Amino acid sequence: MEIPLARYQSIRLDERRDSYYNPKVFNFPPKFLFSGYDFSLRGRRWKNPFGRITCSSAVQGLKPKPKLKPEKIRVDVEESKAQVLDDTQISKSGVSICSQIEKLVLCNRFREAFELFEILEIRGSFNVAVSTYDALVEACIRLRSIRCVKRVFGYMMSNGFEPEQYMMNRILLMHVKCGMIIDARRLFDEMPERNLISYNSIISGFVNFGNYGEAFELFKMMWEELSDCETHTFAVMLRASSGLGSIYVGKQLHVCALKLGVVDNTFVSCGLIDMYSKCGEIEDARFVFESMPEKSTVAWNNIIAGYALHGYSEEAMCLLYEMRDSGASVDQFTLSIMIRISTRLAKIELTKQAHASLIRNGFESEIVANTALVDFYSKWGRVDTARYVFDKLPRKNIISWNALMGGYANHGRGTDAVKLFEKMIAANVAPNHVTFLAVLSACSYSGLSEQGWEIFLSMSEVHGIKPRAMHYTCMIELLGRDGLLDEAIAFIRRAPLTPTVNMWAALLNACRMQGNLELGRVVAEKLYGMGPEKLGNYVVLYNMYNSMGKTAEAEGVLETLESKGLSMMPACTWVEVGDQTHSFLSGDKCDSYDEAVKREIYQKVDDLMEEIYEYGYLAEERNLLPDVDEKEEERVGRYHSEKLAIAYGLVNTPEWNPLQITQNHRICIDCHKVVEYISLVTGREMVVRDASRFHHFKEGKCSCGGYW
């Protein structure tokens, strides 16, 4: 008889009924017993519970029914025909299952399609149409399920399915898309006939897996076998050239594209721009871009990202304005690039515009651009805004968590960073090296010794991540902040890796803050042999000597600098007002401004100094800029670049707007104290990003806690 489909609707791949799986209960043939699978059949739902069932004979007082006499067995021809009809109905039900599978895949209900496919697996050999196999292949590709691929491909082989060229390419693509690249290569080698689609699928797979050398070998095979190439293949191979960083190979592909006349194709042109940009040939990338008859959004994104990648932020910003004026459409990737450039240039207003565009264009849930927003707001003092954007994200990747955690670390909110780390672990998001760098930095900046050591030890013991030099540097900073310099030395010597420049530099800075000149001299000697070109290490030692009156030793540091061709850069500070960035030097005469503005700036500095004196400010007796030599310090006097920039910002920005200050040197002790008092008397928030770290001044306190 016909097997009703309703009996199979409860089949689930992820459910397990041990009693049903027992062969003694369900005597399926061996070919139907799959390891790890089981099949539950939905039973009839009884109207009354079993506890209420009684014998009607006992209730009604009826006698048992008399036994019937056995009759002779007769063979009924009509019944035999009915049995044949039932087999036909079973065949029809199989066709119906295939039809239902195709409809479910068409409606993107892939898992339900595989639940029905399991019925075909139970029945064994059944003549499945090519269209059904094609639908199952599509479901595997969309689900990215290796298990489903093995089930479908195994069923094809057991049923003796012999695919033609189209289905062979589809099966190959299925293996590639689901990450089974080794099996895909074996299938490709066994194909009796290969065409451009076959080559494109396998080449794209190897490029996506980063096996660029194998991709080029296949490209050569294709060229020798078919003597032809599609524009899509060129775009993929240009991406492989970018991955190898080989400009020579990229130029050969460019020549091939020119000979075939496909260089004007949008995909090929965008691939060339991307390849030249990533290989460092930004001028060649710009030439290809300018040669395009029609510039697509992807082309604009690639050339702008190329300039930003190589540090040409201003040029990238100009291209963004050109893109806007050209009328090209802006997508989420354009906005993401804009935000990242703004992060580098501290363009607050531009980021606000990008944020508004994200909302206006419906990209509020787009993870790449919104993660860039979290990163920007975290770095420039808007940590609460960063948290708001973060919480609004429906999906969060590890970069999102790390960006917000790093923001908490930069602004001295170590407790919040640790809580966020614990929340991430509770959400079953696996941390990486950057995660631990962010949370350990937060602990070192905020002086959270106990939590810092607990997290550091959990890296290898709980999460199986081997600490790197950057993590050891955080722990050295934590020991130095606590004044445990001897323990820091012992920690460096016990580290299972060669101490790096940053590890010794962290100890040198701890010696500066703790006033340990002797140990500082020893550490400096270590640094001289490791990285003599790094100016900051010399500067720290120079100021240590100066602050303790060791003028002869300080002069020796200057002589060493001169002999190595290094010199101290003049202190410079930038402040953003509106969409313009203004720079100031220590003792700057502000010649770029008119007389009225100059008088206003210096008058504001004088007024601020008088006001903070009334609040108890006392100038440092020996006030030396860490990155500026003593002669300049004596000349500039009280008009350091930080004070001039802050004065200009206070005059030209509204009271509710936090000031964004950027410096090319480590802020000096006196200016740090001055900014603390200014934030107290004016009630303004100020974020200062110096050569060392971020300083978030608010209500007379700094996020660094006096240690930087």
TrEMBL record:
Gene Ontology MF: a single term: zinc ion binding
Superkingdom, taxonomy of origin: Eukaryota
Keywords (A to Z) from UniProt: Repeat, Transit peptide
Gene Ontology biological process: RNA modification
Ranges where the DYW domain occurs: 616-708
First and last residues of every PPR repeat: 129-163, 195-225, 296-330, 397-431
Keyword Transit peptide: yes
Family membership noted in the UniProt record: Belongs to the PPR family. PCMP-H subfamily.
The protein's name: DYW domain-containing protein
Taxonomic lineage from the root: Eukaryota, Viridiplantae, Streptophyta, Embryophyta, Tracheophyta
